[in-house]
Amino acid sequence: MADRLLTVNEVAERLGTGLRFPRRLIEERRITFVKVGRHVRIPESAVEEYVTAHTVAPIVLRPASAYSYRRAA
């Protein structure tokens, strides 16, 4: 089954951004899109791929040892 095609407004809403951001992604060819006549649509999977590709994992810090701190005199 084919992906659902989203409007630019729907993509902006899903990403939690303004309308200009998905339009800029389209203009800079940073996201897959489909031209339907003069309308532009973005496949749902393209939005998911974009989010996955730009997701940054948190840094996991080692817990500090109780004796690693110096005591003030």
TrEMBL record:
Molecular-function GO term, any one:
DNA binding
Specify one Pfam family: HTH_17
Q: Which residues form the Helix-turn-helix domain?
A: 5-54
The UniProt entry's coiled-coil ranges are: none
Q: What is this protein called?
A: Helix-turn-helix domain-containing protein
